[in-house]
Amino acid sequence: MTEVVFTNFFYDPRYRPSMTQKRLVDANYLGRKTGRGFYDYRNGAVMPEPVRNEMLGREIALRIIVMLINEAAEALYLRISTRDDIELAMTNGVNYPKGLLAWADEIGIRNVVEKLDALYVEYLEDRYRCSPLLRKMARNGQKFF
């Protein structure tokens, strides 16, 4: 699936599939449907114990949320969708507790941009490249709502 997105977005480096994911697919480790993936789902396999660290969990959640906000902002910037349709899709279609753009306002656009920039500097991966719309909004102190 990620290969399709990468191809359909004209090989934008932001959507490049990870090498780990490619290796798993090439080995036919497709998750539960094949019994193996990132985890071993075969009968008798012992699942690893999750790390229980609230601070780490919050950091991971924020990382995911700001990346999703960035994609929502990019869809708006490229006129793929309207603000209201993005919010409707996320609340009704994905059942998120709030829309991504409303979440961006709640977190603070400037904070979203700063987090994306920090991730970009840390990992030097285009997947963290900030949408020009978010950057402009942060600079001008704007909100989505």
Question: Topology, pairings included?
Answer:
Blueprint: H1 2-8, H2 19-26, H3 54-77, H4 83-93, H5 100-107, H6 109-123, H7 132-140
What do you see in this structure?
This protein has 145 residues and is mainly α. 57% of the residues lie in helices and 0% in strands. The protein has seven helices and no strands. Helix 3 crosses helix 6 and helix 6 packs across helix 7. The radius of gyration is 18 Å and the shape is globular. The relative contact order is 0.11. The model has no long low-confidence stretch (mean pLDDT 93).
Brief write-up:
This protein is mainly alpha-helical and 145 residues long.
Order of secondary-structure elements: HHHHHHH
Q: Which regions are unreliable across 5 or more consecutive residues at pLDDT < 50?
A: none
Mean pLDDT: 93
Q: Helix proportion of residues, in percent?
A: 55-70%
Give the tally of β-strands.
0
Strand portion: under 5%
Largest beta-sheet characterization: none
Distance between the termini: 33 Å
**Backbone CA Rg:** 18 Å
Structural class: mainly alpha
* Helical stretch tally: 7
Query: Which overall shape is indicated by the principal axes computed on the Cα atoms?
Result: globular
